[in-house]
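User: Design a sequence. Structure:
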């Protein structure tokens, strides 16, 4: 790729993140003006992508193995803005939520181990306590999703809201999401956050010593030493935790791993360097009340590779025992950004010290 092509990609990345921050003309990055009234099927078109555009045969990135990716297009203005997702154990069913209060359910189609499309897609509104779709734009800013019980087709999940700083339990079926139950009491340290420091990532631990614990992270709220703040909510040892902040990255999502522990998705943006993403693995042994966690960097990528505003991550284990990470991007409903979905294979967990 020549210099002009690289410069164009860097400029596009700068523009898309400016749009994400709301600094462009509103029409370039505007959530749907109306609210969905009921669940509706939608058609999703998928175009395959390579993670390394210049070297499409390259499969190893950091400590992960590329399994494939897609650029997604939905035939409705409600498609996009995806900020969190869950994948069922088979890896075939996806449930995602957007920061406009919309959920997506779809079947993931594969060509062998390579993702090739989404079928049977349905979009629908998250419901408020009154049983009606969430209408206020501030109320619809849903950022985190953690499956607690059931499947991606029917079950119970926690949903976190950034602007109003709340975590609410939702029961859902194939065509209905909510209304929610009573909101979880937030830890004292999670109060007093500004609108852009809200609870961005949540993950429910259903294995190991901390089974029954909801792990929650602020996007960028830090302690006095500059480390990212989080909380263990419920479970056997609730309390505060921190994640070592590396290189000025913020947290965008987290997901439980089948063998215990977490993967954390992070993002960094600077006008001079474009957008970056990082994935860290946190071992189960590191997750303790009062702990400063470091984890293991699995992948760090800049916009020379095929990334966008990566905000959602999930993990599942295949029948062969391979753990697969699925990522999605939040396009902020902007024509300058894309809705990407991509998958990587995760190496076997380390045994000593989580590093």
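Assistant: Done.
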């Amino acid at each position: 790729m020549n210099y002009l092509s690289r410069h164009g990609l860097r400029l596009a990345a700068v523009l898309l993140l400016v749009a994400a921050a709301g600094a462009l003309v509103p029409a370039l990055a505007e959530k749907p003006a109306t609210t969905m009234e009921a669940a509706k099927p939608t058609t999703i078109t998928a175009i395959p992508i390579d993670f390394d555009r210049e070297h499409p045969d390259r499969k190893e990135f950091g400590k992960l193995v590329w399994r494939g990716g897609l650029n997604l297009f939905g035939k409705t203005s409600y498609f996009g803005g995806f900020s969190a997702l869950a994948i069922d154990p088979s890896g075939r069913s996806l449930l995602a939520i957007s920061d406009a209060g919309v959920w997506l359910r779809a079947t993931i189609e594969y060509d062998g181990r390579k993702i090739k499309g989404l079928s049977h897609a349905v979009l629908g509104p998250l419901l408020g306590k009154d049983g009606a779709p969430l209408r206020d734009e501030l109320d619809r800013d849903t950022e985190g999703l953690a499956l607690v019980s059931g499947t991606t087709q029917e079950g119970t999940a926690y949903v976190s809201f950034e602007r109003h700083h709340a975590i609410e339990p939702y029961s859902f079926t194939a065509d209905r999401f909510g209304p929610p139950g009573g909101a979880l009491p937030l830890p004292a340290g999670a109060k007093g956050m500004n609108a852009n420091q809200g609870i961005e990532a949540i993950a429910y631990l259903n294995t190991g010593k901390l089974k029954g614990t909801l792990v929650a992270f602020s996007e960028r709220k830090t302690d006095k030493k500059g480390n990212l703040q989080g909380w263990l909510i419920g479970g056997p040892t609730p309390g505060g935790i921190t994640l070592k902040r590396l290189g000025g990255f913020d947290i965008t999502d987290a997901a439980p791993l089948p063998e215990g522990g977490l993967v954390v998705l992070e993002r960094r943006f600077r006008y001079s360097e474009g957008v970056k993403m990082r994935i860290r693995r946190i071992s189960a042994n590191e997750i303790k009340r009062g702990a400063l966690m470091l984890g293991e960097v699995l992948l760090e990528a800049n916009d020379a590779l095929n990334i966008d505003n990566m905000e959602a991550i999930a993990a599942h284990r295949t029948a062969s025992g391979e753990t697969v990470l699925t990522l999605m991007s939040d396009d902020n409903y902007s024509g300058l950004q894309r809705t990407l979905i991509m998958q990587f294979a995760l190496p076997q967990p380390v045994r000593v010290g989580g590093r």
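The chain has one domain: 3-346. DSSP finds one helix and 24 strands in the chain.
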